[in-house]
Write a structure and sequence with these properties.
heterodimer; A: mainly alpha; globular; B: alpha/beta
Chain lengths: 184, 251
């Protein structure tokens, strides 16, 4: 799948990428993980079928270009990586891929419709009561901005901290439900 | 950036230069990226709730239609999260006993004269000479307390005798939830509303109680959720909480 299978990430290239992210190597490693997650997000929003694999290709290629002498100002690094990701995405999109059922409604039996609810109930039960109340309230479908600001005030935390916490809970629930459905 | 702006990006409604600029920022701005992730969650939920207009639904399906796993999760999640007012609830002694002992509440197993409909009334009636009036099923009372999640604890087990015509669910509310109007609903596990009505509050032994008197033929064996709603009037009710029951019939 790699557009350049002959090229492997070298430690020198990786070090150059880390150096751009942060002067401190440990902090740079953390920043690398965060950057990778964001590239995965971008690729997902573009509709990539393998966002994780393409994110790795993107960062490998960005590192290679830096190692080959590309110059990127610190403030332009986001745009630079975005450009590389876009190229990787287009190259992957040109590869033939299986025709899926994109856009088709989910048509399932009654039993199959019930299974995600049952799994979700089980997964919600595994959260502690406070987290369970929090995630259900945060995503309860009411006026988001007002309700969520109020919720953050009630909890004495920032809206950003609340958003991160509830999103993590949701990801955890999604993973739990997915595993549960595979077992059924 | 507003949530509408973020969702416009996710639905492909921004121009290419706008999208490109936003994407570069997304790679550098933690806060903006987390906002976008939440906007994406909300978009899946909005699709599952059916609140997107036709154009946005089409755009959503073009971009995210193949993500069956997340769509399926969102459908289940909105069924649990929608319009729930989550209320912390202090468990009282009888609730604790019920939970700890897996109490089976057997109801309707006996017949009493017509008009004997409550525990208090039955005491009075028993001291009165019984007339020859034909027997009718009692409406027994089952005490329950609302929780904040359907998944909280084990369901209360309710055994309904076939002779019982109705069952009176005596539901204790959070004392802070005093409203002029209340309604109750019973939903099946697949979220079908199988019974619903306005219910009246009363204060019994210092507790705030509503009674939901439900025909037993609406409750074949199975698991149900009772939701109680309250508000300023019948047109403006919010969920106050819910309790799960497991109904069975004696063999």
């Amino acid at each position: 799948m790699s557009p350049n299978p002959e090229w492997a990430l070298t430690s020198g290239a990786f070090d150059r990428l880390l150096a751009i992210l942060d002067e401190d190597r440990d902090a740079a490693a953390v920043a690398y993980g965060q950057l990778r997650q964001r590239v995965v997000g971008l690729l997902r929003w573009w509709g990539a079928t393998d966002p994780d694999g393409l994110a790795d290709l993107t960062l490998d290629r960005a590192a290679r270009k830096l190692d080959e002498g590309a110059s990127v100002a610190r403030g332009d690094f986001g745009a630079y990586v975005r450009g590389v990701a876009r190229m990787v995405f287009f190259e992957a999109a040109r590869q033939p891929r299986p025709v899926g059922l994109v856009g088709e409604p989910l048509v399932e039996s009654a039993a199959a419709e019930q299974a995600p609810l049952d799994c979700l109930d089980d997964c919600l039960a595994m959260l502690d009561a406070g987290d369970r109340r929090l995630v259900l309230r945060y995503y309860d479908g009411r006026d988001h901005s007002t309700e969520r600001r109020q919720l953050a005030r009630d909890m004495g935390i920032t809206p950003t901290a609340l958003r991160l916490r509830t999103h993590r809970l949701r990801i955890r629930l999604e993973g739990c439900v997915s595993s549960c459905l595979k077992r059924k | 950036m507003t949530e509408a702006g973020l969702q416009a990006y996710l639905l492909g409604k921004l121009t290419e230069p706008e999208a490109e600029q936003l994407e570069a920022r997304l790679l550098e701005d933690d806060d903006l990226f987390s906002q976008m992730e939440t906007a994406e969650d909300d978009l899946f939920d909005a699709f599952a709730r059916g609140t997107l207009d036709a154009g946005d639904r089409e755009r959503f399906l073009e971009r995210f239609g193949a993500d069956h796993q997340r769509r399926r999760f969102a459908e289940a999640f909105v069924a649990r999260a929608s319009s729930r007012k989550v209320v912390p609830f202090v468990q009282r002694r009888w609730v604790e006993l019920a939970a700890a002992a897996g109490l089976v509440i057997a109801v309707g197993a006996y017949l009493l004269p017509r008009g004997t409909v409550t525990d208090q009334a039955s005491t009075a009636t028993r001291s009165t000479p019984v007339t020859a009036a034909p027997a009718a099923p009692i409406t027994p009372s089952v005490s329950l307390a609302l929780g904040s999640s359907r998944a909280t604890g084990a369901p209360a087990k309710v055994t309904l005798d076939r002779a019982a015509a109705r069952v009176d669910f005596r539901i204790r509310l959070n004392p802070a939830d005093k409203y002029p109007a209340y309604a109750a609903q019973i939903r099946s596990r697949s979220d079908l509303i199988i019974w619903g009505d306005v219910v009246q509050p009363s204060t019994e032994g210092g507790d705030l109680i509503v009674h939901a008197t439900v025909p037993v033929d609406r409750l074949p064996p199975g698991t149900y959720e009772i939701a109680v709603r309250g508000g300023a009037n019948a047109a403006a009710l919010d969920d106050l909480g819910f309790v799960t029951i497991e109904v069975s019939r004696p063999q």
